[in-house]
Design a protein that fits this description.
Blueprint lengths: L2 E6 L6 H11 L4 E7 L1 H8 L7 H9 L6 E5 L5 H7 L4 E5 L14 E5 L7 H10 L1
Parallel strand pairs: 1-2, 1-4, 2-3, 4-5
The protein binds [cytidine-5'-phosphate] glycerylphosphoric acid ester.
[cytidine-5'-phosphate] glycerylphosphoric acid ester binds next to strand 1, helix 1 and strand 4.
Protein name: Glycerol-3-phosphate cytidylyltransferase
GO molecular function: nucleotidyltransferase activity
Keywords: Nucleotidyltransferase, Transferase
């Protein structure tokens, strides 16, 4: 059985998130999603997500092509998560191209093209200007 794993914040959930999760799921029979914690986001971006980690996990776990969800607490733990969930494929958007090649000893790594013209940051900017 091929188990796929992917990671993301998925804040202010939008169609770009749906597209990558749907395409990630098509690479195997099960899709496991690591949702970045509020603390991990603060350490990466110096701001907290709009939606809390528990709400973001609830949204992702309700999708029909997602098998299970867990909290991603550190970018450096990728390999541990891959082993723990016995994933054979890691899928990420191509904004992360090359960044996770270091786990290739453990699983296949696939970077998929991002959905153009939509992002959480742009949505926040548009709403801010209203
Ligand atoms: N994404 C996409 N198209 C968009 C926006 C996002 O395909 N228009 C993808 C990203 O490439 C990523 C996933 O959706 O694979 C989640 O994106 P973010 O929520 O922005 O995740 P990020 O903050 O990059 O966290 O361990 C990695 C991190 O947790 C990823």
């Amino acid at each position: 059985m091929n188990r796929v794993i992917t990671f993301g914040t998925f804040d202010v959930f939008h169609v770009g998130h749906i597209n990558i999760l749907e395409r990630a799921a098509s690479y195997g029979e099960e899709l496991i999603v690591g949702v970045s914690s509020d603390a991990l986001n603060f350490s990466k971006k110096q701001r907290y997500p709009i939606y809390s980690e528990s709400d973001r996990m609830k949204i992702i776990s309700s999708l029909k092509f997602v098998t299970s969800v867990f909290l991603e607490e550190s970018l450096e733990l990728k390999l541990d998560y891959i082993k723990k969930y016995k994933a054979s494929t890691l899928v990420m958007g191509d904004d992360w191209e090359g960044r996770f090649d270091w786990v290739k000893s453990e699983c296949d790594v696939i970077y998929l093209p991002r959905t153009p013209s939509i992002s959480t940051t742009e949505i926040i900017e548009v709403v801010r200007k209203l």
